[in-house]
Amino acid sequence: MAYEPTPLSLVSSDKDEVVDEHSLIAEVDRKIKWSEPILQAFHRQWFVNIAMRRGMQYIQTHTTAKAIILPPESEDRVRMIVNKMLGIHQTRLAKMTKDIPRLEVIPGSADEDDKDQARKGTKLLDWLWQNQHMPEKLVKEKGWDIDCGSAFLYVYWDHNAGPKVPIYEKHKGPISGKEPYQIDADGYMLDESGQRVIKEISIGDVAVKVISAFEIINDGISDTVEDSHWIALVQAMSLKDIRAQWPERGEKVTAERDIATRAYYQRRLMSMVGNQSEFFTPESTGTEELATVKTYFERKSDKYPEGRYIVVSNGVLLEAGPLPYAHGQYPLIKFDDIEVSGSFWGIGTMENIIPVQKGYNRVWSQIIENGNNHGNIKLVADKNHGMHKEAYDDSGNEILEVEPGSNIVQLQPATLPAH
Predict the structure, then answer these.
(1) Residue 163 burial (CB count, 10 A)
(2) Which of 22, 27, 150, 311 is close enough to 319 for a disulfide, judged by CB 3.0 to 4.6 Å?
(3) What whole-number distance in Å separates Cα of residue 13 and Cα of residue 302?
(4) How far apart are the C-alpha atoms of 154 and 371, rounded to whole Å?
């Protein structure tokens, strides 16, 4: 059966305003689609940074097709790779994560009650810090920082986390009498023995996830998360995960044939092997059952005093309402490797090292090519020298016999510069 949207109302300053699902979906899709072309150049650069650090240091960006390519290798040229980027990445990562911070709640006043609440809050933070494996996540986040320039921590409430509690399962919708199960007077479902059906649900818990720069879009005019009028988290998810997280509406989501460029580059990173891969051309179709989930946050405004929170996937509205946080702030914490004035995105250390790495590889390639030429020095001889080609070898003890009056001159290749 076709998916039919139903009217939905958001908390707006205009109490008579009713926003239907089509309008919300179109608004989120329009804003994200407008930002996509601007971010494609960033996505390509971030991919190149990681690929170079991975060892694929002869890739290039095709100026016309805007695609990442690996030019064919010439037989008479050397492509030497001395990967300095990897060591620099590891060194910088080690320095940045040497001292992991410890969070502490500061009391709002000198009152004993505030101090007691602060102590309890600090203990809660310590527990969350260990429960969420934050040291490992910070190392991962800093790795993204060094590669792409920016990375994020997404703090949210995970409805599927936490301990499970049993509840009685209640029938939903009108009772027709044709249900495949019995229903008691209170509307609860009964099993074959007449007992209420019990199912387990999770009570939920705080969760922290590392988000790469590939998955974030902001309004394009603000240079901080806090100042952004809106910000969106865009992720390619499997249909199975979508339906597990949004069981009521997730079934209506269908797979997408064309995933955005962010997912394209991320899939290339996951499948990258060795340093000579040619796996850079776009795919027309994919075998995975994927859809793009767009989680849209909008800060408080005169029109929406409680902000907005909208989740859309392939034309289906999964969630909509005000910001689900009492503080009214975005649930994203942004980290930059090197800040850029006036820009939302930072610069990664790897991006700055690419020209130096290419020059280093070129110098070593030239040294090896020069060595190859030295090891195979050519001869200049008269036409009637009378010497067989096989007579000249690399043994060092051969005797060269030539016709009288013939000369043999060994070419001397240019020496390497002193520097």
Answers:
(1) 9
(2) 311
(3) 7
(4) 53
Q: Which residues, including other chains, have CB under 8 Å from residue 202's CB and lie 6 or more apart?
A: 159, 160, 161, 162, 163, 164
Distance separating alpha carbons of residues 234 and 242, to the nearest angstrom: 13
Q: Which residues pair with 218 in a beta bridge?
A: 231
Q: Which two tokens stand for residue 176?
A: 């027709």
Annotate the chain with three-state secondary structure.
CCCCCCEECCCCCCCCCCEEHHHHHHHHHHHHHHHHHHHHHHHHHHHHHHHHHHCCCCCEECCCCCCEECCCCCCCCCCCCCCHHHHHHHHHHHHHCCCCCCCCCCCCCCCHHHHHHHHHHHHHHHHHHHHCCHHHHHHHHHHHHHHHCEEEEEEEEECCCCCEEEEECECCCCCCCCCCCEECCCCEEECCCCCECEEEEECCEEEEEEEEHHHEEECCCCCCCCCCCEEEEEEEEEHHHHHHHCCCCHHHCCCCCCCCHHHHHHHHHHCCCCCCCCCCCCCCCCCCCEEEEEEEEECCCCCCCCCEEEEEECCEEEEEECCCCCCCCCCEEEEECECCCCCCCCECHHHHHHHHHHHHHHHHHHHHHHHHHHHCCCEEECCCCCCCHHHCCCCCCCCCCCCCCCCEEECCCCCCCCC
Question: Please, what is the end-to-end C-alpha distance for the chain in angstroms?
Answer: 75
C-alpha distances in angstroms, 100 versus 123, 137, 248? 17, 11, 41
Closest CA to 2 of 316, 320, 318: 316
d(CA 55, CA 85): 8
Residue 177 has a pLDDT of 80
Phi and psi at residue 65, in whole multiples of 5°?
-80, -10
Listed as ranges, residues in the chain with pLDDT below 70 are 1-19, 65, 258-264, 266, 270-288, 375-377, 391, 393-400, 411-419
For residue 128, give Cα distances in angstroms to 96, 120, 122, 209, 328: 22, 12, 10, 13, 21
| pLDDT of amino acid 273 | 66
What angle (nearest 5°) sits at the alpha carbon of residue 400, between those of residues 394 and 406? 130
With a CB cutoff of 8 Å and minimum separation 6, the contacts of 182 are: 189, 190, 194
d(CA 323, CA 271): 37
